[in-house]
Amino acid sequence: MMRIGLGRDLHRLIEGRRFLLGGVEIPFEKGELGHSDGDVLAHAIIDALLGAAGLGDIGEFYPSTENSWKDADSLELLKHAWLQVKNRGWRLVNLDCVVVCDKPKILPHRDSICRSLAETMEVDPGLVFVKGKTNEGLGPLGTGEAVEAMAVCLLEKT
Ligand code: MG
Q: In angstroms, what is the span from residue 35 Cα to ligand 1's centroid?
């Protein structure tokens, strides 16, 4: 059996926060606002994985009203969510992601982001791909006020 999952997240960018994508810190004058560390890509991936397995969503698993998740390391959340999915017999066929923002540029960091995600999930790096897209200067994504991430995953159970 195969199942597909889709995740999407958006975070505001503000000064005094780190800009994290898949656990990789990217040098930029602003970072993601969030209850956790704000890693927008990790959050989109968690939703894709949980959705594919029919387990719920990130808001149910890690409520922002709970103090235990304040400033949480999103890679730890991803590890935990993926473990729930794996424990139900699912394995990853592939994970494909898009990060949308005009600034900062994603391409120079793409390989380290893919590696970091693959290491966190303990999967072959070839199963994970991340690409950056600009928003053509339009709206908050185009002016450095926000960053959006989308993730699609395919899971297989034999
Ligand atoms: Mg989020």
A: 8
